[in-house]
Write a structure and sequence with these properties.
alpha/beta; Rossmann fold; seven-stranded mixed sheet; 6 helices; 7 strands; 36% helix; globular
């Protein structure tokens, strides 16, 4: 049984360490725990780990956040991953910094990466793990905010947030989305 966990982010050094790239940060940390690395392949960078006897593909699309659907659709088909085994990891400005929220399906909530994935998969019926990046920006400056780098305190806390996200993802793989949502969404994983 294969899973595809896709972290959303933008490629390029200018985007490394930005709020919008927290999906990439989580997958990088997870791959490092398994002492594996990413290979640059079609539409993204891919790594494979094993968890609870299951094959887990970690995907960082190279198509930029707003066009992530192309990479997700391609690798789901390439690795025969069923829709119920797809998880998207992304930033969320509506959640406090570090707060995790897991859902089995839902709307894009204004996130252009999810919007594109839903468009190309022709469904909103896939799981997602939203990670709060805070919302300390003035009206009309959301894009600048999510593309900005972490402040010093946030950067210190980021490894703990990534670890919490990895634990949530592992729970999802071991016990399924319903059990994982019950635990993740009731745990105080942030402010």
């Amino acid at each position: 049984m294969s899973f595809l966990v896709t972290g959303l982010g933008n490629i390029g050094t200018e985007y490394a360490g930005t709020r919008h790239n927290i999906g990439f940060s989580v997958l990088d940390a997870w791959a490092a725990l398994h002492k594996t690395s990413f290979s640059t392949l079609r539409y993204g960078s891919l790594a494979c780990i094993k968890h609870a006897g299951k094959q887990v593909w970690l995907l960082k699309p190279s198509t930029y956040v707003n066009l992530s659907g192309k990479a997700v659709r391609y690798w789901m088909k390439e690795e025969s991953v069923p829709m119920e085994n797809l998880m998207i990891v992304l930033d969320d400005v509506a959640l406090p910094f570090g707060k995790l929220r897991m859902r089995a399906k839902g709307s894009d909530g204004g996130h252009n990466g999810l919007k594109n994935i839903s468009l190309l998969l022709e469904t909103e019926g896939y799981a997602r793990l939203r990670i709060g990046v805070g919302g300390d920006f003035s009206r009309g400056y959301q894009a600048d905010y999510v593309l900005s780098h972490w402040n010093e305190q946030e950067a210190r806390e980021l490894p703990f947030i990534c670890n919490n996200a990895i634990q949530a993802l592992e729970l999802y793989i071991r016990q399924g989305i319903d059990r994982a949502m019950n635990l993740v969404n009731t745990t105080d994983s942030g402010n």
